[in-house]
Amino acid sequence: MQLTDTLRIHELSAEERAVYNSLKPERLPEHVAIIMDGNGRWAGRRSLKRFLGHQQGAKSVQLVTETASRIGLPWLTLYAFSLENNLRRPKAEVSFLMRLLRSYLENNVQRMMDNNVRIRYIGRTHELPTEVQDKMQWASETTARNTGTTLTLALNYGARSEIVDAFRALSAELARKNKPADHITEQDIHRHLYTAHMPDPDLLIRTSGEMRVSNYLLWQIAYTEIFVTDRLWPDFRGIHLLEAIADFQRRERRFGGIGEGCGEVEEDPARIKLAAG
Predict the structure, then answer these.
(1) How confident is the model over 134-156, as pLDDT tens digits?
(2) Which pairing describes strands 150-157 and 225-228: parallel, antiparallel, or unpaired?
(3) Cα 95 to Cα 89: distance, rounded to the nearest angstrom
(4) Which pLDDT score is estimated for 101?
(5) What proportion of the chain, given as a percentage, has pLDDT over 90?
(6) Could you give the CA distance from residue 16 to residue 142 in angstroms, rounded to a whole number?
(7) What are phi and psi of 82, to 5 degrees?
(8) Three-state secondary structure string covering the chain
(9) Strands 31-35, 75-82: parallel, antiparallel or unpaired by DSSP?
(10) Is the whole-model pTM more than 0.70?
């Protein structure tokens, strides 16, 4: 449900306002997830060091979040640092990303407060450096009472590891309650996911043109609409979020059902003749 009590449409830029005015407010997505990709390529195309791409990407995070808060988007989840990043990137780059995260939180918590944004995290965050965890907790506690957009950063996150962690927790619960495994439902699994407190994404945005989901929210995006843009994340702004939402609103979501233009339904299935193979 849109956060109508926190709308600040008047704070949108003229360009953003033009796109927003084309939208149907009652059909805004409740939850948008983004795979922020292209920081390194953005730097490479400018013959810059990779860390400058990451810094510019951090700027995009705050600008996009502020636009989300102005239009009353309830949930925004960003793939900030994957489990694979932690394992496979050079140690110097991982160390820089951790320092960048701390700096981002230190420098932007006041802007989150000004925009009524609260920040949360998903992932195996307990494996991150202690000083980073401390800063994350500080930011979360500082913004906890805000009632606008919930910005969730996926940190040291991998969807397969999330499902493994969910099954471990569910297995322990079944043993504790002495329940058989054949009673497990989808809702039981959902309760143990990192995202149990939020709705599944309505819209998944991927920047940089890559056509893959990169181990991100695999359970949750079963019926999510996917929007891919060639724009690299450091160049992504609030107006591009609004354009993705406009594209989302032009789609018909069927969730496995039958939509318009899919042919007539035969009322008496027994009358249907099967074509010979």
Answers:
(1) 999 999 999 999 999 999 999 99
(2) unpaired
(3) 10
(4) 95
(5) 82
(6) 29
(7) -85, 160
(8) CCCHHHCCHHHCCHHHHHHHCCCCHHHCCCEEEEECCCHHHHHHHCCCCHHHHHHHHHHHHHHHHHHHHHCCCCEEEEEEEEHHHHHHCCHHHHHHHHHHHHHHHHHHHHHHHHCCCEEEEECCHHHCCHHHHHHHHHHHHHHCCCCCCEEEEEEEECHHHHHHHHHHHHHHHHHHHCCCHHHCCHHHHHHCCCCCCCCCCCEEEECCCCCCCCCCCCCCCCCCEEEECCCCHHHCCHHHHHHHHHHHHCCCCCCCCCCCCCCCCCCCHHHCCCCCC
(9) parallel
(10) yes
- Residue 132 has what pLDDT? 96
Q: In this predicted structure, what is the pLDDT of residue 83?
A: 81
The pLDDT of residue 264: 67
**Mean per-residue pLDDT over the chain, rounded:** 92
Q: Would you tell me which CATH number, out of the four given (3.40.30.10, 3.30.70.260, 3.30.70.60, 3.40.1180.10), belongs to the domain 36-251?
A: 3.40.1180.10
The active-site residue, picked from 85, 165, 215, 235, is 85
Nearest to 229, CA basis, from 203, 251, 207, 204: 207
- Determine the Cα–Cα distance for residues 277 and 273; give it in Å rounded to an integer: 12
Residue 39 annotated among the catalytic residues of the structure: no
In the chain, what is the greatest distance between 2 CA atoms, to the nearest angstrom?
69
Cβ atoms of 156 and 86 within 8 Å: the answer is: yes
Q: Give the separation between CA 79 and CA 77, rounded to whole angstroms.
A: 7
Out of 37, 39, 116, 202, the active site residue is 37
Instruction: Map out the domains of the chain as residue ranges.
Output: 36-251
User: For 76-105, what is the mean pLDDT?
Assistant: 90
- Residue 85 known to be catalytic: yes
The first and second tokens of residue 132, run together, are 């980073």
